[in-house]
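JOB MANIFEST
job_type = single_chain_structure
chain_count = 1
residues = 298
[input]
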Amino acid sequence: MAKKSTLIVVAGPTAVGKTAFCIDLAKRLQTEIISADSRQFYRETVIGTAAPTAEEMDGIAHHFVGHLSIHDYYNVSMYEQEAIAICNQLFEKYPYIILSGGSGLYLDAVCEGIDDLPDVDTHLRNNLQQQWEAEGIEPLLNQLFALDEDYYHIVDKKNPKRVLRALEVCMQTGKTYTSLRLQSQKERNFNVLKLCLTLPRQPLCERINHRTDVMMQNGFLHEAEQLYPQKHLNALNTVGYKELFAYIEGKTSLDFAVEKIKTNTRRYAKRQMTWFNKKGDYRFFEPSQLEQIMKLIT
């Protein structure tokens, strides 16, 4: 592998335009794209996660898009191992490859590595799972704040899986989840250039609202109805599906559910930008600045 091999990370909030930008960039660099968008891993959730279609990919190879079923067990450590293996293969052919997504934890796994965390006692895991099912997420967040305030401030508070995992580790080890994550950055045999696409708040909100409307026109409700019997699965515990499941159960009107999707997606985008801003090693560009980015890369 050439020493100058470079992984170009293209991060950014949902709906900012990463898909189209990365395809244009991949064409310019004549390379392939590795997805780090954990919502797009599942083949059954194409519409609700805005996964790129074959037409949108336009002949550019994408890895880790629709490679799993919602029924499959998967975690960030498994992704790290598989993504690094793909990187090593691709760097035999290309000096540059692109890693793109809005899931900061998955981007970090490839760039920096995820420490091997301890296996958790099954009894403890079951107890926490039962607590979540009976009481909801708020009591668990309160416990996490008491045990690991640093991680509390960056965790996706709408993602019970990540909250539960942090609590499991804290309660089993007596240490903070923060102290056990990324204790030392793993060495990679490639360079990393981190870019984050961004837009002013109003245009981004407009893009989120428009994309939600397009998703509904493309059959998002039908997709959610087909998946409703599996609504208990972690892969479906995410923005868009939860709001439509509430409508399917008769708890809200469809108009209200769609507005909630827009609101919660905007909040998710804000949390994503908080993550990338805190990292301190991203360079920020708007999606229209491809030429400036090309000069930076080459």
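[summary]
Residues 193 and 297 are 8 Å apart (CA to CA).
Strands lie at 6-11, 33-35, 62-63, 96-100, 191-197, 283-285.
exit_status = 0
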